Amino acid sequence: MFRIIFLFVILGAGLFAGTQYAGQQGYVLISIANKTIEMSVTTLVIFIIAALAALFALEFFIKKALSASSATWNWFSVRKMRRSRRYTNEGIIKLLEGDFKLAEKKVTRWANHHDMPLLCYLVASEAAQGMGESDKRDRYLELAAQQENSLLAVELTRAKQQVRESDFTAALETLTALKASYPTNTIVLNLLKSVYIELKLWQPLLDALPNLVKAKIISKDEQAQLTQRAQCGLLAEVAEQKGSEGLVSHWNNLPRKLKSDSHLVECFAKQLISRKADNEAFTLIKENIKKHPNSSLYALLPEMNLADSHPAIVFLETVLNKDGNNAEAHSALAQFHLRNEKWSEAQQHLEKALSLRPNVSDYAYLADALEKQNLTKAAHEVSRKALTLVQA
Prior knowledge:
mainly alpha; Serine Threonine Protein Phosphatase 5, Tetratricopeptide repeat; 2 strands; about 75% helix; TPR_rpt
């Protein structure tokens, strides 16, 4: 546009000069080496204008030619990109369908022409993982890592693959490094939760629970369940490393709310029993049963190796005097009677317990008590009931 205006200005100036100096064309002499060129001023002006017009016309045609060439090149590039996208979409579908070989072939065939090669290589890596070709999987991940802004997507894909292969130690290393850069990423946090559980890293799991709730990855109820599981795991860990004394010390340092949790009390009692601290376990269970008469802790009493079982028997009899329909107390007392070869008393308590609720173990104990009293037919009938209960 500027050039056209410029030409019109020159033409206008020429016309104005022509009218002013009509009949006075002037004289121009151009001498180059041994050659001379003579012309009037008017001729020179017309020549200059024509030269400029020709130059502008040449520029226009050159630009048009280059533009056409570029458009043709862009057309081919866009065509390749569209084909690459189509193949990638088809490859993703094949990956979801489980046709890993065809998925890999489709997403890698035109990956160089895709506007996001990262997606192609990640899908190819998943396909290689599905075929069990770990070397190829890792090579695709390396290619994906060479793309811009690929860290999070690549490392998350790597971590998921490691978790699927149960390589939890490697997954922990990958996710720990990733968490440093993306501390609030929900997928990172969720994968770390699973890895902590699998590797029994209870303290890191406990530390992560508030963030998991905040990110709405788990509910409050799930937090409570995972807290119980982690605390029980810690009790077992401390018992293994520090013995019964260290276990008791750890328990005493827990918050009161946790120590009142019947599930954790049961975990603690089991660890005491496993460490041969049966007397301490008995005291713990007795105190908790007094607070919670319907506790599941009754079943642990017969498992204890007490030097004198009389205090436990007296305690259970006291409980039954207050509540004769306590099935768990009847069952525990019956097992003490079996240990002391008091078959008839054991039979009475087991029958009472089974009248209150069915229980496979109590049926087995009752059959044993009947056998000891030579009540074979009754023992077989009880065994059939136990078998029916198991099959149900």
